Amino acid sequence: MHLPSQPERSSLTVSKWTTPIPRCSLPRFVFGSPRRPLSNRKVLIDADHPDTHSLSLAEYRLLSCRVAVGLHRLGVTPKDRVLCVTSNALCYPALLMGTVMAGGIFASGQPALNHAECYRLITFTKPAVIFASRATLPIALAAARDANHPDTRIFVFDDDLLTNSGLPEGPIAHWQTMLGSEWEGSRFWYPNITSPSDYNSTIMLLFTSGTTGSPKGVELSHRNYIASALGYMKRISTHPAWDPNPNPNPKLSSSFSSPPNPPDVRVLGSLAINHSVGQRSYCVIFPKMNVPLYLMRRNDYQSVCAAIERFQITDAIIRSSVLTSMAKNVGVCGRYDLSCLRRVEGCAAPMSQFTKLRLEAMGVGYVCRAWGLTETGTITGPDPLRPPKSETVGQLNATYEGKVTDSSDPFHILKTNEVGEIWIRTPGSSRGYWYNEAATEQLIGPGGWICTGDVGYVDDEGNWYIVDRKKDLIKVNGSHVSPVEIEAVLLQHPNVCDVGVIGVAVNEDEGPRAYIQTSPKTTVTAAEIYELVSEKLPPYKRLSGGLSFIEKIPRNASGKVLRSDLRLLAIQDLGDYLGNYHGTTADGAGVRL
């Protein structure tokens, strides 16, 4: 019998989840009005000091208000920048929210910045006040002095405030000295937005670069931040564990109310708090959902396993590189009981199917991928009721829509299952880049669509797949080859600990070259690698550019392979011409989370 063919479908896709976006300020979204009673359930908990360092939603709001009072006392005026350079700290969310309550713009710096990078960041943001941890203070202080920033506007920032034990660092005062009192905090009335321009004004700067050249500051407004958070919250709350829904009367609920306490959910906070996903998760999403979150200061795979077992973590968002380390060290991870971990989302870098299947075989409920950009927030994730089996990065979060276009013609929308350049549109997307009109014009296309810089496709069921970053694709004899695909194959070797692949010049064309980090106290030969690749990949995807064993694969703070560093190694290995990168480019593309 002849079956009629299925009609072709456009790749233009809208999320199957919907949610209203309240027009309010970010503090009003998280806490409601200043006098509204809030839960005393602990929602932010220090994984290293759970008995002494924790905050409930009520305590989180009070500390935020005390920050706002203190900033006003320091003379911070609307749209002044407040810069924080620190690693994970339990009080960071209150510093962020207090800055927004005071009308300022919160800017977050990476703790690993060197002097030159920190100086560029300070001269770029021109902060009214700087907060730095003890570890980052020496560099931040020297850079601030070079930028003529007064010492009296720099504060030591840490969690010693929670035990009232904060001490100065030389001439630099501890930040507890600038806070308002608890009485002042309880009386502080943080404003709501009063106009559309207020709603869409910049409240946050997240930085996509700054390690080379001038940093790009992603501007986020109340609307952007709320829409992105709600998109993620709506998706995950469709699972019964997240939404017991004891109040079936929709007339008695609102987007401002705290949801009921999910009775059996505990979240692990292992991401860097200055990372886009980490910041939204710890400052807004999970406190708003009234879910206990255990914040970690170390994110190596053994510390992650220990925290999962100790706190009986049920849900986690973990860097893909950490998940890969877990998968490559089954013997070590097997010493911990991970059966409590029902759901894991890998982010910040691509995750191989090998890692997913290995972790699920270890007893983790299901392992999946999420995908997003600093400029848009988290775009996709798994349907909680339909755990993915394929290599998809999931479906669009609520408030998001996407399309795939021909790489040579952005106005030509492709069909489902056709590979092309991915564009995203959402009210959660950035307003653009701080004082960088040229980059903003490259980022935001007609109709408000964001150029992601990622190449991929969407299937007929709305599942999205990422092939690779457009700028990282290797063009071999006219065919595009994904470094991520080759890396996933190489990681299957039991003694390969980490790997990075780039394109180099090969016979007037381009070919893949691998840099390989072996596991400690093991050896791997080049012949073994070539044999593995020959078994798993067609000829044009094999390592025609050669391979090299190195001590450590360079990665940034989010776990992404620093391919620019590998290209410098290739130039050292092969010479300026052969080692130079000959691949495609994607100017102005967004930065993957």
Automatic annotation (TrEMBL):
Signal peptide: none annotated. Residues 40-434 form the AMP-dependent synthetase/ligase domain. One of its GO terms (molecular function) is CoA-ligase activity. Residues 241-260 are annotated as: Disordered. PROSITE patterns: AMP_BINDING (PS00455). The lineage of its organism: Eukaryota, Fungi, Dikarya, Ascomycota, Pezizomycotina. This is Acetyl-CoA synthetase-like protein. It comes from the Eukaryota. Coiled coil: none annotated. Residues 485-560 form the AMP-binding enzyme C-terminal domain.
